[in-house]
Write a structure and sequence with these properties.
Shape: elongated
Low-confidence stretches: 214-229, 482-501
Strand content: 15-25%
Keywords: Lipid-binding
Helix content: 40-55%
Protein name: DegV family EDD domain-containing protein
Radius of gyration: 27 Å
CATH architecture of the largest domain: Alpha Horseshoe
CATH topology of the largest domain: Serine Threonine Protein Phosphatase 5, Tetratricopeptide repeat
Number of helices: 23
Mean pLDDT: 87
Domain DhaL: 12-202
CATH superfamily of the largest domain: DhaL domain
Structural class: alpha+beta
Distance between the termini: 73 Å
Strand order of the largest sheet: 16-15-14-19-17-18
Largest sheet: 6 strands, mixed
Number of domains: 3
InterPro entries: DegV, DegV_C, DegV_domain_contain, DhaL_dom, DhaL_dom_sf, FakA-like_C, FakA-like_M
């Protein structure tokens, strides 16, 4: 359709062009993942770009105004952006919106000028811009468009002709970017942008809206890749967040992030900003970041675990749990356990349990923050992402979660597992532990040891279901204040209990519901009650192992450890500062013992 003249673009044309470009990324994300080497060889650039464009596809509708449409696209992309390339692409769209005149239709010249002016937005967003990436390809594409901006009545053909420039620029990333020079690959992010424009051009040529329907069940997973360039990961966690109402300039925020990691991107504006940074200590970063604005969304990917999944798997069965699983980090790392964080909120500020907030920080905030924290379940999409990733590399997946009576996390895991198991033809077993914290940790640990010993999936899941009934937890509450603030104990009853100096002992029943095991007049007395009961059970059943837990009470945990050694003749497998999601109700100073008996 080389003779087609398009003197202007309106909102609907832009909308359908974006959908066409986005679909091209969705169709080719596996290939983009395959060639992903820079900035980290974690093979997820395609998945991240797919997530970014899907956020736009899922959240906006056609509108006749170009300005309204480009604004909606930019907002949706910024909110849904994932990964370095996704955030950069979203920032390009943000700049496009900022530099677009408030008009329902625009000409080629106006479009070209907005593209040209959007380039600095990308470069300014990145702490250390590197040429030979998506940045270079978009900039060189912009330069070509600028040279053709006087072709007023040839909008479509100018875009079509630009593809030759894009292909040349993409091919040159292999020589411009040092990290790619020893491979046969081009830059993955740049490839994603070129594919996006290829989709746009296809729509311009054919104008077939019927072909733009997106399959909502389309798989966005990674594929198995055998040949990888293994490299040392400098910073373990790929961390992203949305920050609202920033109290400092974006350059100050960028400097702050640069002192805490690398691959820094700050996109958006002071009122709504998307950040991306690779860091070793996301909890420390976010603890200080909360003073710079309101953090409303966070995402943290463990790049070490991602690399292990792809190229350093110890076994062929993957193990998944949630962050209420209280097990030492050393054991989690050794057994390559995949842990998804429960969401935790202090007012408008969002955190990820154990990732962007650690127990010591949490208990300090529990004492100082005006609002009592709230937790929320892990959503189905998070499980879909992790299961699709793992199913690409493992023969089977086993997941064990906190009691379904406490959270919808188990239910969401089941829904996602059914979908991904069907798509990949891989078994995914999801187990309700009917417990939490250290008891969940022991169940996960036993499953891990069975995987290590080479047991079958069927044997492991069958054993787990039996072990669920043999897991116990006893929590000695030190202070009722958290239970009162969280609504677990009514204020009148709480006041009476505190006046009398009552210290409840909390446990779990066989259905996974919380149970008042007993109440005493001191924590010392409640611990004696727990120890007596453990001795009684021990006379009837053999102990497999146990874990000691505490809420910022290391001295108390040491005393419990001494007493438990006297009773059992063995040391605990872990001594853990209890998960913030559990500790928010148990309260500062709580002590607990979790046990797993042989069935």
């Amino acid at each position: 359709m080389r003779n087609m003249e398009t003197p202007f673009v309106n909102g609907k044309l832009l909308y359908y062009a974006f959908i066409a470009g986005g679909n091209q990324i969705l169709r080719n994300q596996v290939e983009i993942n395959r060639i992903n080497i820079f900035p980290v060889n974690d093979k997820d650039t395609g998945t991240n770009l797919a997530s970014t464009v899907r956020s736009v596809i899922d959240n906006i509708k056609p509108h006749k105004s170009y300005k309204t449409t480009v604004g909606n696209i930019a907002d949706a992309a910024l909110i849904g952006a994932r990964g370095n390339s996704g955030v950069i692409f979203a920032q390009f769209l943000y700049g496009l919106n900022r530099e677009t005149l408030n008009k329902p239709i625009i000409t080629l010249r106006e479009f070209v000028e907005s593209v040209k002016k959007s380039i600095p937005y990308m470069y300014e967003a990145i702490a250390n811009p590197v040429e030979g990436t998506m940045l270079t390809v978009i900039k060189e594409w912009s330069d070509f468009l600028d040279s053709k901006k006087d072709a007023i009545y040839d909008f479509a053909n100018v875009i079509i002709d630009s593809f030759e420039v894009l292909e040349k620029s993409l091919a040159e990333t292999n020589t411009k970017l040092k990290a790619l020079s020893k491979s046969d690959f081009v830059d993955a992010g740049a490839k994603g942008f070129v594919l996006f424009i290829e989709g746009v051009i296809s729509f311009i040529k054919n104008r077939n809206i019927r072909n733009l329907v997106v399959d909502s069940s389309e798989n966005v997973s990674l594929v198995h890749i055998n040949k990888l360039t293994e490299e040392e990961i400098t910073y373990r966690y790929c961390t992203e967040a949305i920050v609202k109402n920033i109290k400092h300039s974006q350059s100050e925020l960028q400097n702050f992030l640069s002192h805490n990691g690398d691959s820094v991107v700050v996109a958006g504006s002071e009122s709504l900003c998307r950040i991306h940074v690779h860091t070793h200590k996301p909890a420390e970063l976010f603890y200080y970041l909360k003073e710079m604005g309101t953090v409303t969304f966070q995402k943290v990917d463990d790049m070490v675990r991602q690399q292990e999944v792809i190229s350093k798997r110890k076994w062929n069965i993957a193990l998944v749990t949630d962050s209420t699983c209280d097990l030492s980090q050393e054991l989690i790392d050794y057994y390559q356990i995949n842990v998804l964080p429960i969401n935790l909120n202090f007012g408008d500020s969002h955190y990820l349990d154990k990732l962007t907030i650690q127990p010591s920080q949490f208990y300090n905030m529990l004492e100082t923050e005006a609002e009592f924290p709230q937790s929320s379940q892990i959503n189905e999409q998070a499980f879909t992402n992790i299961y699709s990733h793992l199913a690409s590399h493992y023969d089977a997946i086993i997941a064990v979660h906190l009691s379904s009576e406490f959270s919808g996390t188990y239910s969401n895991s089941v829904k996602a597992s059914k979908r991904i198991s069907k798509e990949f033809g891989k078994p995914i077993h999801v187990i309700d532990s009917k417990n939490l914290s250290g008891a969940l940790g022991l169940l996960v640990l036993k499953a891990a040891k069975n995987i290590e010993s080479g047991q079958s999936v069927e044997y492991i899941t069958k054993t787990l279901k039996k072990d669920v009934n043999q897991s116990k937890i006893f929590v000695s509450v030190h202070d009722l204040q958290s239970m009162i603030r969280g609504g677990r104990v009514s204020k009148p009853k709480g006041i009476i209990a505190r006046t009398l100096g009552l210290n409840p002992v909390i446990s779990m029943d066989e259905n996974g519901k919380s149970l008042l095991f007993g109440k005493t007049f001191s924590q010392q007395a409640s611990l004696k009650k727990i120890f007596r009961h453990i001795k009684k059970i021990g006379r009837e059943k053999a102990l497999w192992n146990y874990i000691i837990l505490h809420a910022n009470n290391t001295d108390g945990a040491q005393l419990v450890e001494v007493k438990m050694f006297e009773i059992t003749g063995k040391y605990p497998v872990s001594v853990v500062n209890i998960s913030p999601v559990i500790g928010m109700h148990a309260g500062n100073g709580a002590l607990a013992v979790s046990l797993l008996f042989n069935s």
